[in-house]
Amino acid sequence: MNEKTETGQQSRKEAIEAQAKLRRERAAEKLRENLGRRKQQVRARRSGQADETNGLPAAKMDES
């Protein structure tokens, strides 16, 4: 292989690794947010307060 091809493959590999790292960081952030919401729900249930969820509107029960 020539030097140009090796450099191109290396930079492509680095770009893929950078994208994978960003994906892992986003997933970790979403997991932390989800854990925080779940802990808040548990605390609310213990104290007898209603859950203050931000879930999907279709998942909520209609009060009629």
What is shown here, in short?
Helices cover 70% and strands 0% of the residues.
Note down, in words, how this protein is organized.
This protein is mainly alpha-helical and 64 residues long. The protein has a domain at 18-46. Helix content is 70%, strand content 0%. It has one helix at residues 3-47. The longest helix is centred in the middle third of the chain and has 45 residues, at 3-47. It is rod-shaped, with a radius of gyration of 22 Å. The model has no long low-confidence stretch (mean pLDDT 81). Residues 37-46 have a biased composition (Basic residues). Residues 1-64 are annotated as: Disordered.
Topology of this protein?
Blueprint: H1 3-47
Tell me the overall shape. rod-shaped
Q: Count helical runs.
A: 1
Poorly predicted tracts of residues: none
Structural class: mainly alpha
Task: Give the DSSP E fraction (strand runs of 2 or more residues).
Answer: under 5%
Distance N to C terminus: 72 Å
Sketch the topology as an H/E string, one letter per element: H
Task: State the share of residues found in helices, binned by percent.
Answer: over 70%
Biased composition (Basic and acidic residues): 1-36
Biased composition (Basic residues): 37-46
Protein name: DUF4169 family protein
Region (Disordered): 1-64
